[in-house]
Each structure stands twice: as structure tokens, then as C-alpha cells.
Amino acid sequence: MKTDIIMDSVKVLSTILDIEEDTKLVHGTRVGVVCAWVAEALGMVPQQRWLYYSGLLHDIGAVGLPDHITHYAWQAPSELQSEIRAHPLKGMKLLTKIPLGAQVAEWVYLHHERYDGRGYPLGLAKEDVPLQAQIIRIADSLDLVIRSHGTNLLSLELLKEWGRTVSGREVSPALVQVLFDEVLNEERYQVLINMERLEQENERMSRLLNPGVNDDEDAQGDSELLNRISLVMAEVIDFKDRYTLGHSLRVAVYALAVARQYGIVRHGLLQDLALVAFLHDAGKVGVPGRVIGKKGPLTAREWQIMKKHPLMTEEVLQNSRFLKGLAASAAAHHERFDGMGYHKGFRGEEIPLLGRITAVADVFDALTSKRSYRGAWTVAEATEYLLKESGCQFDAEK
């Protein structure tokens, strides 16, 4: 069961990392699948699962950039260079908190090293760069080439030409040879450029590398492990905006306090509430930084983008075996008791109980925290606002 939870959590994290507005970028998906293919070709069967996970999560440290890191593949503003170069270290620190094994964190840390010694963060060269890090590197670069050219202008032959340009520079010549002689053929190339087929292959790979997982079994899992990994997810989510660091954890603390104040003591329900609070803003990772960090009022279009994030949260969690039962509650934190909220416009007790509690905690933390467009309110000011909105924005009982 612990393996199931880890696999499921990697899947959720990978989805969170690759959403942008309402688009699936599938960057991590493509990198993970290619890593698994290469590992298989090289006979690295014991490490194949971990390389697959590494590919899915290799950019976990880049979530704080204004836009998805793929936008900065070829040219990045000078003011973002230090943050971009820091993302492997940040990723390593996050991954050490998930029981994936120390090797996954190390490989992710080194995935921007180059065979010619011109990479970062350590400037390693040739055989000093672990083969696993080189595999992530070439899979990452392959995705960026496919993304930059577009499927209509690309072919397997053009990819082979690209391979010759990176051989001995980004990765070892031997690895490039394996990629094009033993891994990529026309069939697999078509998988990489077709979104539906790529997601099918990702699902196949997930099942292949995690035998014994049964979608029909009771997905209660190990609550302590699920809580631990969800806390890491919350940390990743909150990296999206420097003003919200620690937000999801504080929302969980406030939500649990509210629940206990009103007599909710059942451990299972409190556990679910904590998970809802940790993950309520998962969809916000897909909102561009220019919208989240804007100092002035949002335009109508920007509000439209912002209001999509609860829906994206719901879609992310619906794809989780262990968290799908909480998806509706996590997505309800911007609903209003009077029916004027979003994203579904639920009214009163149509709003899930855990969502109603999380909404109160979310607003309290937002008001008492500094934002790009205003200073922090005092606790007294925030409390007065909550009381004033009782029965309108919030459940009067909560």
C-alpha cells in the first residue's frame, strides 16, 4: 500500500507541475516516459521505476518561476537566471522529503550537468555526470526540441540531426546512440508527439512499473504517509508565489482549529480536512505569475484565469486514487454561502462541509498575510470581516 501511495502522489505532483491555465503541458510526462524507455534499453531494470519518477518530477524545484520553466528553455530574462539555476537544488531538497530514495533527489539535482562540463550546478564533466542524470538531461532536451518545433514541422530524421548536435556536448555519444538506435523508432516518435497516445503510454508505464496496484481495492492507505507527502505537495504549491509561502499549512492549522471549536473530533474527518487544506490551491500552480503577483486590479480576462484554479484543483485530485474523494471539497474554497462564489456557484449546504471550513481558514490567512497589492490586516480586522460576512460569504455556523 505504501508503494501505491508513493506512485499515486508522484502522479498528482507531476500533474500539478505541468498545468498552465487549463492546458496540460505534459513536459514531465514526456520526460518520464523517455527516461523509462532508455532505462529499459540499457538494462537498468532495478532503476527503471526511479528514473521514471525522476523524469516526471525533475522540474519540481522550478514551480516558483513566473511561468512554466519550458518558456525559458532557450532564453530567460537576466533577473530570472539565478532562480532558474537554483531549481535543481530546490528540487533535490523537496524530493528528499518524499520516500523515493536518495538517488532520485541526486539525479534531479544533477540533471542540468553537461558532458562537456558547461552545465550546472557543479560543472561536472564526462563520466563524473551520473548516467541517470544524463538520461534525464537528454529526455528533457528532447521534449524541449519537440515543443519548440511543433509536431507539424518535426520528424524523426530531424530529431536525429538534433541528436548529433548534442552528442558529446550535453550527454555522452554512447547515450545518444542508444536513444536513436535502440529507443526511438517511428512508432515511439508518434507516441511522443500525440497527446492522447503519450498519456496512454504514461498510464501503461505507471502500471508496468508498479505491479500489484489495483484500482478497485479500498484506497484508504497509510494516513501518516499520505499526510507527509501531501505536506510536501502543499510546500510545492505555495512556492508559486512568494507571498503565499506557508499559506496552505496555515490554512490547515486554522481549519482544524475551527473544526474542533465546533465539535468535529472524529480523527478521519480531521485528517481529510487537513488534506483538503494542504491541497486546496493545487490548481493555482497553473495560474501565470503575472496574474498571481499583479499589484493592481485584475482585468476581466485575468479574473477569468484566476477563477479557473479551483476547477484545476478538482481535476488534479480526481485523478488520484487516494485523494479523489476530497476533490470536491478542495475545489469549494471559493464558493460562497449565498451562492455567489465560484467555480460551481453552490449555495448553503450544497457546499461540502470541509470546503466551507476551508473557505473560512483560507480567507483568514489571506487577510492576515501580506500580498503584492496590500499589507497584512490585523487579526482583529480579519475577525471582524469574517463575522460581517457570516451567512453571506461564509457558513454562519462555521
From TrEMBL:
Signal peptide limits: none
Pfam families: HD_5
InterPro entries reported in the protein's UniProt record: Cyclic_di-GMP/3'3'-cGAMP_PDE (IPR052020), HD/PDEase_dom (IPR003607), HD_GYP_dom (IPR037522)
SMART domains xrefs: HDc
Domain HD-GYP residues, every copy: 2-195, 222-398
Cited CDD domains: HDc (cd00077)
Protein name according to UniProt: Metal dependent phosphohydrolase
